[in-house]
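User: Please predict structures.

Assistant: First:
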Amino acid sequence: MNSYRDWTLSDWLPHLENRYLDEIKLGLTRIKHVASMLNLLSPAATVIMVAGTNGKGTTVAALESIYHAAGYRVGTYTSPHLLCFNERIKINGECIGDDELCRAFCQIEETKQDIPLTYFEVSTLAALLHFQNARLDVIVLEIGMGGRLDATNILTPDLSIITTIDFDHQDFLGDTLDKIGFEKAGILRVGKPAIYADKTPPQSIFLCARMLGCPSYINGQHYSYEFTENEFIFNFADLTHQFSKSHWHPNALAAAVMATICLKERLPIEGKAVIQGLQSIFLNGRQQRLKFKVETLLDVSHNAQSVAYLADTLRENQSNQRVHAVFSAFCDKDIDALLKPMIALVDYWYPALLTGKRATPTLQFDALFKKYDIIYQAFYNSPWEAYQVACQNAAPGDLIVVYGSFLTVSGVLAALIRQTEPGSNRELLALKGSKNESSH
């Protein structure tokens, strides 16, 4: 075991990936036992859990930004990462360092002994170890998949948020929205407030909430939002908050604001901190526009619901721009549903191949593109190669949209960062981790 203490992060990550590559073992017994040995199960900080099919990352980012603006120390744990593993674990927006990660992995390895853990379980324990001695006021955890049996659910949240429910990961979560909703509702706790960011969540969630006696706050019933030409207006009882309009999904923003209201006794907060926080959200890859050689929109949308929202946004904001789409997706996704909403909006397609066992084969892509009469010049070996060709073909004023998976976006984003000279592009430099440089 002592050899682990000399490992770098470049040693640890392949070790974890290769060791647990094919294992998704649902159940909390193993990780809870190890977490207990590490004394991680009862953090002093207020704990917020965020589950849902889409909008989790934006909701977590909004909560982090609001509470940080209010002067609180905030730890966040999210997944998957976009550019580097470290971004999964942050305190006040700052990624965990390589050395801290290695120490956490080593401590977990030495503590767990012969108990098998998955890649995600080790990641979750590493986050909780990092938070353990950081004197945090708030911990915000993004559920990895589902909720009931997700590794993050070993903690007891003081408040739970369920964003949206749609079809994704059906092999593990069930083949109906009610079954999926039941799994997401596993993060609810007896008597603790629950927020539903969607206006029509499945009935299974309400049944679970009633059984547990959770005070429930539903978008459109207990709180709401509206738009003017330039403002996003949040309403709850006699309270109103007004914010500048942004590209962030309003359901996520409203849920985050509602959470601060529910927790105001534990975490007092002024309205100006809420406004400042929502105006300072930083999150890569969510309808993120970059002014590069060609205007580029990066979006990690990878299921039917998120792509439909991307298409709606393009439809609302598109003038006479020609749209070039760099697209790729994993073979276990509903690729039809990722293509259909975009067909009428995209002028030129650049399908790209991904790496790994989940990569979609060329023949499968080709069949789908032919099915919808989508014309393309070639399949490209990577998203970055496809993006470079799109840049060459694009005329001034065109828009390049990169979407379909986290890996599709990260392949382009990482390459753009490598090509950026210091001082040449504030927005790209911000991606390297300094949230204060963001131009959102």
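Second:
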Amino acid sequence: MTTPVAAAAGAPASKTSSRPDFAWDDPLLLDDQLSEDERMVRDAARDYCQEQLLPRVREAFRNEVFHREIMNEMGALGFLGSTIGEEYGGAGVNHVCYGLIAREVERVDSGYRSAMSVQSSLVMHPIHAYGSEEQRRKYLPKLASGEWVGCFGLTEPDHGSDPGGMKTRAVKVDGGYTLNGAKMWITNSPIADVFVVWAKTEDGVIRGFVLEKGMKGLSAPKIEGKFSLRASITGEIVMDGVFVPDENLLPNVKGLSGPFGCLNKARYGISWGALGAAEACWHAARQYTLDRKQFGRPLAANQLIQKKLADMQTEITIGLQACLRLGRLIDEGRGAPEAISLCKRNSCGKALDIARTARDMHGGNGVSDEYNVIRHVMNLEAVNTYEGTHDVHALILGRAQTGLQAFTGA
């Protein structure tokens, strides 16, 4: 007898089949959910990252050096502004591809992914989305190729999670604006050619401006002594009476919606990237505990170790499925900012926990950069904080659920 459910589903007759295979490193077969083009992009990114970035990262991190030529290499591969159309120098790929690239880059190092994300999401995106056609033609092709490096100035010495309180001011003068103020913790700023800076005008409205290296009164000193993201370069942006011509004002956005739109693009990439770093730590911990023998057997033969590996596998697998779904929603125009906050918060928090656990599973060797996991731990401490802290994203999600904001006491 055919039941109504079976009839509606067109279910075939049951038959005995062999037990499905289980891929320990891809339990829900994420790879099968990608298109052929998406897999090609992922594979190209993986090859470059493993063959070109990985051999450089240990010395770069030790010496706090960012190799400028990496931007040219990424540009040649289409990594910079990858979702922007080919008419402006981008690769024109979808957001799933962008996420897959971020995952592979951060599998090597969060600093490298940060440099790429800033260029793509925080510099090229606002010029593309909020700029004039003249600005797009002038800046985007050279940013896409890596000939120019860009940075994004929103965070200030006294204003991080509260960007609306910024003190940087833009005063209207004949032919343009005069900018005064300072921005802090700015990835790429010491080597930047292009600066997307957000400032308040005299009427209190936040506007975006494109500044260029060499403008009088503009400087970008390097921040020394970081213990995180050491393979990327971070600095300040200091503006002392910088004249910015009218044509460098981003004309198509006003208010915090501008910088927040950029941050959401970056947070999406971080969601994928942080899990790439987590995967590197998970795989390293698995291999180390298989190879390392104590009391006459591999560490991996212990229940505690297997439980930790299972936890890593579970969180990464579920997190990647969420990122993939989010990418599809963004490509469909349905990716809500709150959904991006959910994934950014989940990926970064879980990745940091996984990295710390992997470091512990390496025992004393875990503090040596020969094993890479300590580098990921140090990086992910910053990744969990920037582009919206773990708790700030919780407040975004709390507001979405309750209709009540808890950012201030008002």
